[in-house]
Amino acid sequence: MFLVLNLSRSTLLISLFLALLLVGCRLVGAQSPQQYYGEPGGEITGRVTGVNGYPVDWAAVHASNGQHTYQVFSGMSGVYLMRVPVGTYDVTVGVPGYRAGGVTVNVTANSLNTANFQLEVAVPEFQSNIAQWMTIFTLAVTLILISRKPLNTTVD
Length: 156
Hints:
Oligomer: single chain
Shape: elongated
Number of strands: 8
Structural class: alpha/beta
Strand content: 25-35%
CATH superfamily of the largest domain: Carboxypeptidase-like, regulatory domain
Radius of gyration: 22 Å
CATH architecture of the largest domain: Sandwich
Order of helices and strands: HEEEEEEEEH
């Protein structure tokens, strides 16, 4: 049984906009990780790779000591580098479509610590929250309605 909606394209666009706005508001409310440039401290570096050792770019790498969290992103070659204060850190990496990885790193003054990650492909999981479900529903309704209405195109 199909749900038949008689909505105009402008109503669909407004619905899509509102659903995306809900998702965006949730992302904006998140607290940003800190950056560190002072002394004394050390560096954590490494390479993030995926299937068959291919580099993973734009992987979010976090180093947390329980009080502060520092974040960097891997470059196109999968390499990242961050400078953090002296201490022990849980270093984690997350990329959509891959299982998260993590290690513990002990940073001393002027040290260079290496934490490489080889990520495995993960099956996507949906969390139960209204913003994601509204987005999925809106996109599904939009696709159904667009597919039912032929586009007015002329080919010469």
